[in-house]
Structure formats: structure tokens, C-alpha cells
């Protein structure tokens, strides 16, 4: 994908990139400088590190996947494959 920098130093992200990443007006993006150039990505959502809340979630969800017929790795592969198919149907690769 290609974009240009305006005279004010602004860039426009192509619509395909915004759709794929779920970026909308007002979202905060992180800009990282690397040896290869510049990388732009959505800011990560801040999570709560309250140990009491974390422990409660772990206790409430313990064993929830015990009856899964596929391994965790197989499950993730299947989800990714399904997502890739959806992207192709939308014309976004």
C-alpha cells in the first residue's frame, strides 16, 4: 500500500488498512522507528493489573475448555483460517 505525506506532515492510511485493523477517526496510533523504516499500529488497550480481578477471572474460567476436542494450537489455526477466508470474501488480503 502506498500513501503520501501532506505539507503539514499528515498521512492518510488506505481504507484497506483501516478496515483490516479496525481503525476509525479519533483512534490513537503508535509510531515506531525501526532500522527498516517506520511502523504504525493501533495503540494497545490498557488492561487492569489488579491482582484480585485477575484471580477472579482465572477462577471463573478455570476448566472452561476441558471438553475441547481439538488442541489449543488447532483451535487457533482454525480461527485464523476462518478469518483469512472472511478477509478474502471482503476483498481484503
Architecture blueprint of SSEs:
Elements: H1 15-21, E1 29-33, E2 38-42, H2 51-61, H3 72-90
Antiparallel strand pairs: 1-2
How would you characterize the overall build of this protein?
The model has no long low-confidence stretch (mean pLDDT 84). The chain has three helices and two strands; from the N terminus they run H-E-E-H-H. The protein folds into two domains: 1-46, Ribbon (Pemi-like Protein 1, Chain: D); 47-93, no CATH class. It is of the alpha+beta class and 93 residues long. It has helices at 15-21, 51-61, 72-90, and strands at 29-33, 38-42. Strand 1 and strand 2 (38-42) form a beta hairpin.
Classification by helices and strands: alpha+beta
Rg to the nearest angstrom?
19 Å
The overall number of domains is 2
Q: Show unreliable segments.
A: none
Q: How does the major sheet shape up?
A: 2 strands, antiparallel
What does the overall shape look like? Answer: extended
The helix/strand order is HEEHH
**Mean pLDDT score:** 84
Question: What's the number of extended β-strand segments?
Answer: 2
Oligomer: single chain
Amino acid at each position: 500500500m502506498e500513501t503520501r505525506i501532506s505539507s503539514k506532515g499528515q498521512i492518510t492510511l488506505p481504507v484497506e488498512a483501516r478496515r483490516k485493523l479496525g481503525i476509525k477517526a479519533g483512534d490513537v496510533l503508535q509510531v515506531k522507528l525501526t532500522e527498516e523504516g517506520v511502523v504504525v499500529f493501533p495503540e494497545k488497550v490498557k488492561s487492569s493489573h489488579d491482582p484480585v480481578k485477575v484471580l477472579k477471572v482465572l477462577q471463573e474460567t478455570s476448566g472452561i475448555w476441558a471438553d475441547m476436542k481439538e488442541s489449543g494450537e488447532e483451535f487457533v489455526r482454525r480461527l485464523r483460517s476462518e478469518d483469512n477466508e472472511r478477509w478474502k470474501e471482503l476483498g481484503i488480503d
